Amino acid sequence: MIRLLFLSLLSVSAIESAAVQPGSRSEQTATQGGDQFLDGIGETGLMARYVFNGNAEDSSRNQLHATVRGQGAVFVDDGPRRVLLLTGEGSHAELPASALSGEDALTVTGWLYLPTRALGPIFDFGQSLTTRLSAAVEAEGLRVTALVEGQARGETRTMPLIDHVWTHFAVVLDPASRVLTTYRDGVRAGQARNVDVTLAQFVLPAATTRLFLGRTHDDRQPTLHGRLRDVRLYRIVLGDEQVATIRRNALASVQSPRDRTTPPEISTASIPQESPFATQLTSVPNVTVETIVGMLPRLPAEIPDTYTGGATGPVRVIWPAPIDNMEVRRPGTYTVTGRVPGTTFAPKATVIVKARLGTRTPPDRLVEAFPLSRVTLDRDAQGRDTPFIKNRDKFLRGLAASNPDSFLYNYRETFGEPQPEGARPLEGWDNQTTRLRGHASGHYLTAIAQAYASTGYDPELQAVFLGKMNYIVDALHTLSRKSGQPARADGPSVADPTAVPIGPGRESYDSNLRAGAIRTDRWNWGVGFISAYPPDQFIMLERGATYGTQDSQVWAPYYTLHKILSGLMDSYEVAGNRKALEIARGMGGWVHARLSAVPKETRTAMWSRYIAGEYGGMNEAMARLFRLTGERRFLDTAKLFDNTNLFFGNADHDGGLAKRVDTIRGKHANQHIPQITGALETFRNTKEMPYYDIASNFWDIVNEGYMYSIGGVAGARNPGNAECFPAQPATLWENGMSQGGQNETCATYNLLKLDRQLFMYDQTAKYMDHYERALYNHILASVAEEDAGNTYHVPLNPGARKQFGNANMNGFTCCNGTALESQTKLQDTIYFHSADHKSLYVNLFIPSALTWSERKVRVQQVTDFPYADTAKFIIKGSGRFDLKVRIPGWATRGVVVKINGRDQASKATPGAYLSLSREWRDKDTIELKMPFTFRLDHLVDQPNVASLFYGPVLLAAEEPAPRTDWRQVTLDRNDIGRSIEGDPATLRFSIAGVPFKPFYETYGRHSVYLHVLFK
Ligand SMILES: [Zn+2]
Hints:
- The protein contains 20 helices and 48 strands.
- By secondary structure, the chain is an alpha+beta fold.
- Strands 40, 41, 42, 43, 44, 45, 46, 47 and 48 form a nine-stranded mixed beta sheet that branches. Strands 3, 5, 6, 8, 13, 14, 15 and 17 form an eight-stranded antiparallel beta sheet that branches. A seven-stranded antiparallel beta sheet has the order 4-7-16-9-10-11-12, with no helix packed on it.
- A hairpin with a 4-residue loop joins strand 44 (981-983) and strand 45.
């Protein structure tokens, strides 16, 4: 029955017209398939999704399952589907409070069906009846209220709902714009402005936060009588078109690719594209480069331009980025035209393509890192704990207090073993049904091993870590030996990893991990198997399974395995734990057996699959296992992980990264970065040049076209996924800066690994310049002020703030797991040595002490850096060696070097290593002064938007509130430092009253990118 008719549907054509964002280049490039887009919205925007088709599970990757309570709540058939029926007699659903904690914005969407004259609450999120965001069906219509301590901060009302029809509703709370919007059937039906609330007011960290569907905070008030389905929580603000698309797709029940809409973003229209220095630029020279047949040329990202008055400075040039290498298939000459962003200059590059001349000599690995135990972090010159020590200790405390049984919980359950008393499972991506469970345990084992290696200064603490490491390895060893072995003397078993049968009583392989339903027939799993879930996901991947949360889908089986194997090999390398190596060897054999039997085409398809085929650095792990065991089959296995399309373009190896073709555009960043370090590890063991080229070309492509100022990558609004590279290189302004954030922290961890490993072959300072940039401005900036909480994305949108999760180490995302590794090895790249121990490399300026046992030398680095621009090195011991000190690329104002107090005439070039060779004597000192300057680091394709740096340190503007525009600053045209006041000793500055401080000390809202004007 219809109580009242209201607005009819908008005409379909009006809704469809905005499906493709103008100016986007999405048609030019195929993004990865899979479940990354639901109704055109990337999965990074979705917090939870309750389809209610027979259960209350969250089908998003976060697995925040709801609980259905009360009399009369049932799942019923409704046409082609099942839905949740609430009968109004107290029945309701409750969502985990963590679904919204730490978020800034909220969109709730869902479908509601009301019987005759039914009323009641749809949702009620908050603390109490007086502090909550709620939606309710009233006789007058749908009413949405934002209430804080009894005060209405915003309210919308719609026309009455219609009985006996499914209504699509959406509620969007956008605190930055101070707007609350309600949608009904895909159309905006009510809006309140000047809504002065934050989501945090409703979702306090306290245990008092409740998220109800179908009831209010008062259990005496009536509950909902109606049906619910497909209720979704988004952490981003959805716009009109997106809400309309969700509804339209549900009605059409088929998603068309053109529904890949782009989220509404902070307006960029007000910022001009023209460079503020365009009129001063007088010439940009053309360039000539050489390359060999097949290899795309390496074109200079910067060319020294000439300005009026004769001043020159490198200016960014964006060159075309071809999608293949057709132009260099034959010897000859051709010309390409670049552009200088924000100007009309179009420099030309003449490319000379030469025939391949002989074979290239593979570079040797001339430099190595010191073991973690040889380098300790020290307090600074004034005796203060450094940011590195503070972060390390937050993690060491958490790890020391952790219970290894939590990290073993899912493993024991998988193998059908009882839990020790008091063992509690982890949450987050390690909860019961998460198909990635077990990943954190691998990170944990690595972290424990690193913590053990790094705490020689505290034997008691070190013993704690050794105890935990041995306990975990022993437990995993016991489990792994049960796989493929009879459970009892005369019982059946399947030892062959390629013969694992379907689980008992099942019809197919599946990823059902629910309590009581998970298969535990470990005797059928083949010898050597170890994981926190049964082997099905590995097998399903071979058979084409995609990423998702249905029982027929997988998450990323080899990704999880990579973490476990790395943890085991770290335990072996750090502490000589042979059992750990034995487990790794067993599982390596299992992987070798299975993948050897998989046709090449199938493997190519597997590794190209979004997330499902994400394998971390399995190729690196397998090459490393070869190095540790000498067993050739593991090196062969490493190559079975070749991501053929990414690495080589196609099966014939015509292109790809090996030929400097950008094959990463639009791809998931962290899925692919570890594959590159894996390629380099394969090169280390095979000396096959294409694997080296893959790594060094990738580094250039990423650093020149995809990098944000903090040294991280990913955050695309095209494709709409905050974990993906933008659809085209050098389009961070056009296609990056997604609403869901940028800079997945895992990805930066892996970029740092690549930096240091490339440096071992090629001692070019650029690798360590990036290392420093990302270490200070992302890794150091990713940890909470008071505890071990840490970031997933680090958003750089104006007025954004970091969200720190997992302070108690009990619920890990990928990045929370990776943080355990990052923060327990902060000393690992300060010093390197040449392979022949004749040279010592100083890469970073961090108070520390090095024990160089091979040369019987100790080096102490005393500094307040970056709160001072000096560093002093004290040699203890003696001998002739080259001291190679990195002169940072930003140190452009003359570096002074003193040895034993006397000025050296040595020429220190920014962005290069300075070599000091002599017969060093005990107590010799080397002092360095590297004057800091203020400088701007521009978004690659927007010359008016930049980050402010002081030396190596990114300075972020402190923001009191969310923003809907980019913060403007006006700087002196000739010397930006003249516009900035402050104290270099504390790194606290201000520009026209706006406070700036290091991004790594920023815990509130910030603006990292600024709209820069000049006076
Ligand atoms: Zn991550």
